[in-house]
Amino acid sequence: MAQMPGGALVLFSGGQDSTTCLGWALERYDRVETIGFDYGQRHHIEMECRLDVLASIRARFPQWAGRLGDDVVVPVEAIGTLSNTALTREVEMKMGEDGLPNTFVPGRNLIFLSFAAAYAYRRGLKHIVTGVCETDYSGYPDCRDDTIKAMQVALNLGLERRFVVETPLMWIDKAQTFAMARELGGEAFLTLVREETHSCYKGDRTGQFDWGRGCGACPACQLRADGWRRFVAEGL
């Protein structure tokens, strides 16, 4: 695939979705950089895993290594200070009285996109890639397509730039995300996504499953396990 100019910045946590989005961007853009956010998350181990994933891509995927540029981690501890959620506190993961799961961190994705746009402005990158998804929608209003489109308009007006916020996973489920990973980088990339990424909300990497590592019980693990079962059963 011919690479498009303008460069891309990928919001990269080191999880299944953002790693697949990183592969997607590396297939399309001549220059790809990554940004991560340290907000005191309960699953802080993802900050270590993201570095391992980046190192593996550089070492094992020569078709991408030359296009993978700088990585930056932005500290935003204020998110943890302001919120009281199961991703920033050691509390049980459950549905809240407002009908939203208590793993929802209010404003998190909006803050991430604002910081990412400011960094993309500085780095001269036009495309901002994020792994939000409405198909596997779990009650997070800041993952909706309408939210992202509205955010793109606000960023473009507020920064006087023509950013494009890309959401490659918006309309596909976890089974299709596994399939996308294999289509992008073959079995080697699918194996990397399964074995080296981290998506477990509890930060547990002791459990080893066909779909990857995690506790096997939290909402993120259950979603991933169900997606893998369908990926295998449907022969995607």
Shape: globular
The H-and-E topology, N to C, reads as: EHEHHEHHEHEHEEH
Strand content: 5-15%
Fraction of residues in H or I helices: 40-55%
Q: What name is given to the CATH topology?
A: Rossmann fold
With strands numbered from the N-terminus, the spatial order across the biggest sheet is: 3-2-1-4-5
Q: Low-confidence spans: pLDDT under 50, at least 5 residues? A: none
Work out the count of structural domains. 1
Number of helices: 8
What is the terminal-to-terminal distance? 22 Å
Explained architecture:
This protein is α/β, with parallel strands linked by helices. Helices cover 45% and strands 13% of the residues. It is globular. Strand 6 and strand 7 (212-214) form a beta hairpin. The chain has helices at 16-28, 46-60, 62-65, 78-82, 108-123, 145-159, 174-196, 219-233; strands at 8-11, 32-38, 68-75, 127-129, 164-166, 207-209, 212-214. The chain starts with 7 loop residues before the first strand and ends with a helix. Helix 7 crosses helix 8 (219-233).
Can you describe this structure in just a few lines?
With 236 residues, the chain is an alpha/beta fold. The chain is built from eight helices and seven strands, in the order βαβααβααβαβαββα. The model has no long low-confidence stretch (mean pLDDT 88).
